[in-house]
Specification:
The chain has about 270 residues and is of the alpha+beta class. Helix content is about 35%, strand content about 20%. It contains seven helices and ten strands. It has an eight-stranded antiparallel β-sheet with strand order 3-4-8-6-9-2-1-10. Strand 1 and strand 2 form a beta hairpin.
């Protein structure tokens, strides 16, 4: 019995060691190094990122899109050795990753998140298989956060209304054309009642703790719930700031390349 227990303990220890071993990744750039902690609760994204790091996929790629007070984005294959002043960031590794959007992971300053195509072509919010961004953002006032909550609430209501009304549209137009206005109005009432049922209260209200973080540390709160956050910067926030300040062209590409020299796993 002791032998079996010892074997189990050894297995558990080995698994724990492995988990700890792969938590941290260091991104070396020509402007300094950034160390990132990957989240365990976003396994699809974290494991994909680690796979690319171990394959040296990101080595010599660029931070090709930089927008001050917003974020820095990199990891696109077409940025490797790309001539200056050319548009990059359109590469496709051949796969996307199922969204892992968790409410506890917010777009605070220093967050690591996955880039993706917009909702119009990607309603499931699936992530790029290679491109990522690091949040710089800015600090917000309570009034600004109120407005963000309200806009997200209204956008969600409108999206639900569009989904509910689409299958009823032909019937609605037929009622209008034949003068059956009461029936047409009843369809609109149905849609509005369903919207109010689902969104009687604003689900995008931030907790006091989240508000305080956006007011003091900053970030990009308007991205919450729309993109997968799967890690955060633990060292090198000054490098993030340095990259976010570089001069860029009309495509938001830095005029002087910000190069990912290499990436490697770190134990601590």
């Amino acid at each position: 019995m002791r032998t079996v227990c010892l074997f189990v303990l050894l297995c558990v220890s080995a698994l724990s060691y492995g988990a700890k071993k792969y938590k941290l990744v260091e991104i070396s750039t020509n402007l300094g190094n950034i160390k990132i902690k990957l989240y365990e609760n976003t396994p699809r994204h974290s494991e994909n990122f680690l796979k690319l790091v171990k394959a040296h996929h990101y080595d010599s790629l660029l931070f090709h899109r930089v927008i001050g007070d917003f974020m820095i984005q990199g990891g696109s294959s077409d940025s490797r050795h790309a001539p200056k002043e050319t548009a990059v960031g359109m590469s496709n590794p051949g796969y996307t990753i199922e969204a892992e959007i968790r409410p506890e992971y917010r777009h605070f300053k220093g967050a690591l998140a996955a880039a993706r195509q917009g909702d119009e072509v990607n309603p499931e919010k699936r992530s790029s298989g290679e491109q990522f961004y690091l949040v710089q953002g800015k600090t917000y006032t309570d009034q600004e956060l109120d407005q963000i909550e309200k806009r997200k609430w209204l956008a969600a209501k409108n999206q639900l209304g569009d989904r509910l009304f689409k299958p009823l549209q032909e019937e609605f137009q037929r009622y209008k054309k034949t003068g059956q206005y009461q029936k047409a109005d009843s369809l609109l009432r149905y849609v509005n009642e369903e919207i109010e049922k689902q969104y009687a209260e604003n689900p995008y209200k931030m907790s006091p703790e989240t508000r305080e973080m956006y007011k003091s540390v900053g970030g990009t709160p308007f991205l919450d719930g729309d993109y997968t956050v799967f890690g955060e910067i633990v060292e090198g926030m000054d490098v993030l700031e340095k990259i976010a300040l570089v001069a860029t062209d009309s495509n938001d590409r830095p005029k002087e390349d910000v190069i990912i020299l290499g990436t490697k796993l770190k134990r601590k």
